[in-house]
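Input/output pair, single chain:
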Amino acid sequence: MILATARRMRNYPRRDGLAGHCGYAVSMTRDIIAVDIGGTNARFCRARIGEGSPPELGTIRKYRVADHPGLADAWQAFARDEAAFLPSQAVIALAAPVDRTPIKLTNSPWIVDPVELKHRLELDRLVLVNDFVAMAHGVTAMPRDRLRHLFGLDEGLPETGTISVIGPGTGLGVALISRQGSPRIIATEGGHMDFAAIDEMDDALLARLRSRFGRVSAERVVSGPGLSVLYQALAGVEGQDVPELEDAALWRVALDGSDRLAVRALERLCRGYGTVAGDLALAHGAGAVVLAGGLTARMSASPVFAAFQERFIAKGRYRSRMGEMPVYFADHPEAGLFGAAAAGAALL
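Output:
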């Protein structure tokens, strides 16, 4: 397949700066298309993968999910923007379970049929993975200097045992890496476990959220939209009348400190995130935790993110262990796409 792909590609011009002549048979590198589909945005790029080296990403192209009726339509927009021959292999990371078809994305209306999609896109090989399975693949391939230490012991990722990979976006992604010999990536739907109240304010907020949603999952609170959910619930607890703000505007005023109630909602979100991450680390028997995603990057720059650490380690008799557990942030500007490309290197 590598040689066949090289023969097909050698006569086509390259626009992304990745080497693209006929060195595939010698270097064992190849180009694929890496795609990361979230609830809000779909990201595409041409990626170069090779055994024993991190993936190299070409030009990143981003499209709003709401602007396209389906994945194939967004792919066509990407193909037009690339304006060059595309590789015949692709890996697509989806914010949804991928073990049943057709695949319904959890936080968007898109539905994906793998067989139909492969045919429509004229691909020789197509692999679909859960987005946080891809993120975990990315963590295993990420250079050490891309793992930013947050707290706990700074010993790097353990060579054996389990690593939890967690991060909020439109939903809450959770996967784990089992290192017993070659790394094994395990998909989970940990973001859909019940949200746990820890203090009296959590109790009051959870009561309001139950009256609104019925069951309250972890990702109902610990996610991008969760900030608005907490903002409205806090206002209700305190008898305040607040406007319905767009998520982007609410995050902006929470992070810049210009809306005190929004800052408090963000602090509660950080607390909830720490609780959930600590519970998952215990459930996974983790030796380390890697947080991921753009929202974590934004939150970690805020003073209220200290509430995350406070809740993460507040596990009673396991407090000392949780305080020592290495916690890192996957500090890559395109961690989702990097992970998709890393999954392609492992699975294609």
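Confidence is low (pLDDT under 50) at residues 1-26. The radius of gyration is 21 Å.
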